[in-house]
TrEMBL record, chain A:
Taxonomy of the source species: Bacteria, Pseudomonadati, Pseudomonadota, Gammaproteobacteria, Methylococcales
Pfam families recorded: ABC_sub_bind (PF04392)
Protein name in UniProt: ABC transporter substrate-binding protein
InterPro entries tied to this protein: ABC_transpt-TYRBP-like
Gene3D superfamilies in UniProt: 3.40.50.2300
Keywords, alphabetical: Signal
Endpoints of the signal sequence: 1-25
TrEMBL record, chain B:
This protein's UniProt keywords: Signal
Signal peptide (from-to): 1-31
UniProt entry tagged with the keyword Signal: yes
Official protein name in the record: Uncharacterized protein
The organism of origin for this protein: Methylococcus capsulatus
Source species, domain of life: Bacteria
A family per Pfam: Phosphonate-bd
Length: 314, 278
């Protein structure tokens, strides 16, 4: 069953029929409000499609916020009228709106950039938008086993704990993390840190850090410095392939939708998940074999069956 | 010297086959024969990479294209409608359809010297299989495929247990194993080889995973040809068989998780018999 919220305009989600393929017949029936920030954005659309495929048989009330004038009061009305068992927000705008509404239904989110910046509340569950740093290090070890000295720049305001965890974990996978903390990441500080860091490392690791990756110029500067030093860059988003990253390990978007569905099924069964927020379980790996060859960095050929996109020199 | 001579003989034989195939194709068949591929354990979006890599490899060798599928029914429809081509599929899938289709298995994929693999159900902090009731199990492939595999692995007496699982489909085996290590799933079903890879990446995580059940051994990827195309398809089969002799061919094999191919007729009798269509 699929229903549309009456406030939505422009004939929302035409043909959005549920696919019951994945249901085992044992899932509890439930009613879920899905708030999607923008279905025209591929990653949001794919996430919702996978979620719906997995949740076939549930009543879904969907709202595409880019085609709707739904506000917090409207969402409160919707929740009061429909009594959903769960509100699932896809994207930051949807999550912000769900947070502003006072409805008592449990909330689930995904595709929210830096979800930690939002107020933490009980009854809110989600899938993080990035792989954990430990996952990223494991995948690096798997794909580029000879790149063992890994350099990372970070702003302690955003990443002190995460980098400390990553440093402890790096030993488990036989890597040496060479980290540079920059308290005041203005351009000169970043340039100086890179000059000091690059000669000590085999690969530069870009982590999600709004203090370091402030704008396009900063990102270009970091890639240029790495290139001049002949060091490959390992990044967390495919956006960085365009800047010259040799290896990217990003979350697999459809898996995020499936994970959200698995979490939703637990919540509908009134099971308390082991963790309120999970890291993405699926990875999307892009390896630029051409660039790595130019930098004399070998990849693990036995890991190629795990690579989603292999970029050659053609 | 003997090897060189053998290589040259094979090259001449392939040229002759190719010439014959081209001659016949011009009169009666589509311009290109295809290598069709479907493996439920492959990551769907890696198919673009596979297609580019194989098309680039095959183009100078003859009028061949690579055609991957991400939906089993579409692959089987192509098989039913098109008798010209080589069909690559998993040993598990071949076992299911060989009775229905006139297909001959000609090559079996080999990895690290082995052409058989088994799947292992492993979990962290769990004493035995019965403790898995209601947990999330991660693995590669569609949910239907994973549930069938889990039921085969755990046996008929555990079907209710499998029905209680929340199955999480992930793009690759290594994701499934890491999902357990990092707490996104409580158990994973993966190949034995992937567990060994985890042992190489992170021995500590590997030691925390307890194998709880294992499937029967199954063949890795199998290359098959429709019986009516066996003779005409011989040059294409030979091109695939020889992939491990060229660096680009080796890279493409690695994308499939293989090191090379082995002729079915060279396998020991029990295995070649198992692959023979009824």
């Amino acid at each position: 069953m699929c229903r549309r919220h009456p406030l939505t305009k422009w004939g929302l989600l035409l043909g959005a029929l549920l696919t019951p393929a994945a249901v085992t017949g044992q899932e509890p029936a439930g009613k879920i409000v899905v708030l999607n920030t923008a279905r025209s954005v591929d990653r949001y659309r794919l996430t919702e499609e996978e979620f719906r495929r997995q949740m076939g048989g549930q009543t879904i009330i969907d709202v595409n916020l880019e085609e709707s004038d739904l506000d917090a009061a409207g969402l409160n009305d919707l929740i009061a009228r429909e009594h959903p068992d769960l509100v699932y927000s896809i994207g930051s705008q949807a999550f912000h709106l769900a947070g502003a509404a006072a409805g008592g239904a449990p909330q689930l989110f995904s595709s929210v950039i830096n979800w930690q910046r939002f107020p933490q509340r009980a009854g809110v569950y989600g899938i993080a938008n990035e792989l954990s740093l430990s996952q990223e290090l494991s995948l690096l070890r798997y794909l580029l086993p000879k790149a063992v000295r890994v350099g990372v720049l970070f702003d302690p305001k955003f990443n002190r704990e995460r980098i400390a965890e990553a440093k402890a974990y790096s030993k488990d996978v036989g890597l040496t993390l060479v980290e540079k903390s920059i308290d005041n990441p203005v351009n000169d500080e970043v340039d100086d840190a890179l000059l000091e860091l690059l000669p000590q490392i085999d690969i530069l690791w870009l982590v999600s850090d709004p203090g370091i990756l402030t704008d396009r110029d900063r990102v270009e500067g970091i890639f240029q410095a790495a290139d001049e030093a002949g060091k490959p860059v390992y990044a967390y988003s495919e956006v960085f392939i365009g800047f010259g990253a040799s290896l990217v390990a990003a979350p697999d978007i459809p898996t995020i939708g499936r994970q959200a569905a698995t979490l939703a099924q637990s919540l509908l069964r009134k099971e308390e998940p082991a963790a309120a927020v999970q890291f993405p379980a699926g990875s999307n790996i892009i390896l630029d074999a051409c660039h790595l060859a130019k930098l004399n960095t070998e990849y693990n050929p036995d890991a190629l069956d795990s690579v989603n996109r292999l970029l050659g020199c053609h | 010297m003997a090897a060189e001579s053998k290589h040259r003989t094979r090259w001449l034989r392939r040229r002759a086959w190719t010439a014959a195939a081209l001659c016949c194709a011009a009169a009666t068949a589509p311009a290109e024969d295809a290598v069709f591929f479907f493996n439920p354990e492959s990551s769907i979006d890696s198919y673009a990479t596979l297609k580019t890599a194989f098309d680039t490899y095959l183009a100078p060798l003859g009028p061949y294209v690579f055609q991957p599928f991400n939906v089993r029914a579409t692959f089987e429809q192509a098989l039913a409608q098109n008798s010209r081509g080589v069909y690559m599929l998993s040993g598990w899938h071949y076992g299911e359809i060989k009775g229905r289709q006139s297909l001959d298995a000609v090559l079996v994929g080999v990895s690290k010297g082995a052409f058989l693999q088994r799947k292992i159900l492993s979990a962290k902090d769990v004493a035995d299989v019965s403790a898995l009731k209601g947990v999330t199990v991660a693995g590669t492939g569609s949910e239907d495929y994973l549930r069938t595999l889990l039921k085969q692995t755990l046996g008929p007496e555990r079907h209710a247990l499998v029905d209680s699982f929340k199955v999480l489909s992930v793009p690759k085996d290594i994701d499934a194993l890491m999902a357990v290590s990092f707490g996104m799933a409580q158990a994973a079903i993966s190949s034995e080889a992937s567990l060994q890879k985890l042992a190489a990446i992170n021995p500590k995580q590997h030691s925390q995973l307890k194998p709880l059940a294992q499937s029967e051994k199954a063949f890795l990827l199998i290359a098959t040809v429709p019986r009516s195309f066996r003779q005409e398809g011989a040059p294409l089969v030979e091109i695939l068989e020889d992939m491990d002799k060229k660096p680009e061919g080796v890279t493409n094999l690695k994308l499939l998780g293989l090191d090379g191919w082995k002729r079915v007729e060279t396998l020991e009798a029990p295995y070649s018999t198992q692959l023979r269509a009824p």
